[in-house]
Amino acid sequence: MMKKLIYLLMVAMFIGAATTDIFAQKKEDKVVCFKSNMDCADCEKTIYDYLKFEKGVKDLKVDHASNTILVKYKDGKNTDEKLAEAVNKKGYEAEKISHEEYKKIMAEISENGHEHQHEQHKERE
Amino acid sequence: MKNYILLLLLLLLFIPFLTFSQNIAGTVFGNDENGKQPLPGVNVVWEGTNDGTASSPDGSFKIKQKTGQHMLVFSFVGYESQVLHVHDSDPVEVVLKPNLELEEVTVVKKNRGTYLSTINPIQTENIGGAELHKAACCNLAESFETNPSVDVSYSDAITGAKQIKLLGLDGTYSLLQVENMPNLRGLATTFGLTYIPGPWLESIQVSKGAASVLNGYDAIAGQINAELKKPDSSEKLFLNLYRNNDGRVEFNGNANIKVKGDTLTSGIFVHGHDLSKKNDNNNDGFLDEPLSRMFQIGNRWKYNNHKGYMAQAGFNILTEDRLGGQVNADRNMVSSPTNPYGVSIKNDRIDAFFKTGYVWPDTRTALAFLSNFSRHETESFYGLTDYNANESRLYASAVLTRDLNRAATHTLNSGASFIFDDFNEILYNQDIQRTEKVPGVFTEYTFKPNSNLTFMTGVRVDFHDEFGTFVTPRMHFRYRMGQHFTLRTSAGKGYRTANVLSENTFMLANSRPLKWDKNVMQEEAWNYGIALIQNYTLLGRDLTLNAEFFRTDFQSQLIVDRETSADYILLTALDGKSYANSLQFDLRWEPTERLDLLLAYRVNDIKQTIGGELKDKPLTNDYKGLINLNYTTNLKKWMFDYTVQFNGGGRIPIVASDASVAVADQKFSPYTVMNAQITKYFRLWNIYAGVENLSDFKQTNPIAGADDPFGPEFNATNVWGPVMGRKIYVGLRFNLNYD
């Protein structure tokens, strides 16, 4: 009896966790991007760890090299402003930018990276 | 010249103000459609710290490594993060793979629990913080429950002593280290694994086969190193509470204080647990696990001037007592056949360590000094037998590391060590005393022409006051063939001082007395190993396959003979052959995002000459299988864990001359044990709940003759399976970090 109960409980919890994920993705999520002023990998971690437990946050991308933050959250559970405040609270700037601008910055960064690599490649050869 | 080197080595031993901080250099590459190319701007950070750097435009980086820092984390936008275990100061090469889902909003931030290093010349598994979260209770012994290489079992059915096995060989054949210094030996052998609370651990490294000669002559089967949390880590305060349905309550806490910025830091550690509920679920009149209390407090200090000099020191005080045996046994009762059968064990221990090091500004030369001291007192009785003992032990070692050329192709590690061990035991009213003094010198040469090849060979000579002078040669070789294969081989000799009585005190839970010819003896063995790791990408995710074979051949060994005589248990020297073969395969893969799968299977073939006959070592599983599944939700808010262990059968030792029992060997059958756990993470704290031994499998009658504990049939030492059934637990962790 006890055994069955425990099995059931475990199964229920697994299913529970799996379904919350699925349902969460079905509902429209909002995406907000910020430009910030992190300088170190450490600041990145601080912001990441703080934002991930803000209400409704579903996904997160924090990058100190490009100084950008991207937050995906459940609409209605949180607002862009409140998320910006959360970043400020940890002592960093959060200047809202559009998703397009964000993509552009990220693209530029990987472009530059490639240029460097090519140069270096030649030197090595 | 020779004298000069010897003099230098001796000198090193007496210069205690030296270190351990060295520079790790390497190159980071990105592997994308254009092939492998250097990657600039990659974050390189020591896991769990603020110490980091970024790679230069040519992909190269240099980072300072401090004692205890082993795990380098590489991360870069658009690439999957990678964690690397750094073992030595050799330049590392890291290839990051593009994260194909860049356009989508995903961050891969899952820490791999355990992984196999392909860089280290010695076959090593690293068990990181994430893995340690999987085994919620309670100490170092239990940290291996999800590990394919280490087996954990009970020594007997009364004392609660746990032993580990590596390559199927008893834990005593593995060198147990705390922070790279040998520890928990001698009197602490029996219960030592329960002396390191799980929440104090930062990581564990398990290396198999002959270890480096730098660490001593005694790693025969392998080496297990436990790293404790560091005072200069970002953790400010950590608290942990735990309770299970057997009535065990546990508290752990630690705090870090920045006394002077990052220069002088201090860490305080506390542990306490209590089990006062009597559990006898198999109704044999004996407690399934002993009542126990333990209290521990520790304090450590770290000084780092960030210019190459570092020093660390600390101490730890422990007191514990256990009471096992019949349910109505009492801590203060007089041992007598008219009273219940009881086993009472009290241990008091104090540990202290000091280590320091210096790295020259050119980073080619480093000097380190490591030392620890322990005092251990045991007071115990097993039924009518008293066993009391104390031990004082000192260990000191100094190592000079020198890169012979700028590119660090040739590296030499040389040094000297000293062991002092004073042992006093009283058993059957016999006073047994001995003192061991072992000075030794060692040197190790590493050849690393490129990042794909490492050849390491070392030798040490030790001058034992009782066993004379002996030589320990060891060799390691690693070769990475292309992207997919890493091959390792190792061979080496190992020696060990066997403390005949103190290592076998649990054998006293038995009606037969112990009989021994020597109270101390030296064990000697050769170990050979070969391992092949393969790394592939299967359906876009990393797949690691590992195959390894190790053989240990004993030239001399302490044999516990429980089957030759019905009148006593004989602790004697090996007369004949003794060997251990261990063949293991394991597979690690991520079938879907954030789901880690581990499959492992190992065959043990362990034989000893017992009573003139080569037999399977008793109470040893002939195989072990393991399945571990770990799933975390996005952003790691939930974690689910499930482990199944398939334990093979084995031989139960039976006394041949006992007419009342069948002469044929008895076998125990294979059995399965399952564990499961769920953790929910919040910003400052996390809660977990889990079940150990989910299917409630128990060995039937773990105690023979339980109805007459003072009679001739009584024996609690033939334990091969779980004594305790299903255990449900809940726990809470609170975690506050420095920003």
UniProtKB/TrEMBL annotation, chain A:
Listed Pfam families: HMA
Residues of the HMA domain: 29-95
Region (Disordered): 105-125
GO MF entries: metal ion binding
InterPro entries (alphabetical): HMA_dom (IPR006121), HMA_dom_sf (IPR036163)
Record flagged with keyword Signal: yes
Keywords: Signal
Keyword check for ATP-binding: no
Signal peptide, first to last residue: 1-20
Name of this chain's protein: Heavy-metal-associated domain-containing protein
Organism: Draconibacterium aestuarii
UniProtKB/TrEMBL annotation, chain B:
Molecular functions (GO terms): siderophore uptake transmembrane transporter activity
Keyword Transcription regulation: no
One GO BP annotation of this record: siderophore transmembrane transport
InterPro entries noted in UniProt: Beta-barrel_TonB_sf, CarboxyPept-like_regulatory, Plug_dom, Plug_dom_sf, TonB-dep_rcpt-like
Gene Ontology CC: cell outer membrane
Highest taxon of the lineage: Bacteria
Signal peptide span: none
Keyword annotations from UniProtKB, A to Z: Cell outer membrane, Membrane, Receptor, Signal, Transmembrane, Transmembrane beta strand, Transport
Location relative to the cell: Cell outer membrane
All copies of domain TonB-dependent receptor plug, residue ranges: 121-222
Bilayer disposition of the protein: Multi-pass membrane protein
PANTHER family listed in its UniProt record: HEMOGLOBIN AND HEMOGLOBIN-HAPTOGLOBIN-BINDING PROTEIN 1-RELATED, TONB-DEPENDENT OUTER MEMBRANE RECEPTOR
Family to which the UniProt record says this protein belongs: Belongs to the TonB-dependent receptor family.
Name of the protein: TonB-dependent receptor
The organism of origin for this protein: Draconibacterium aestuarii
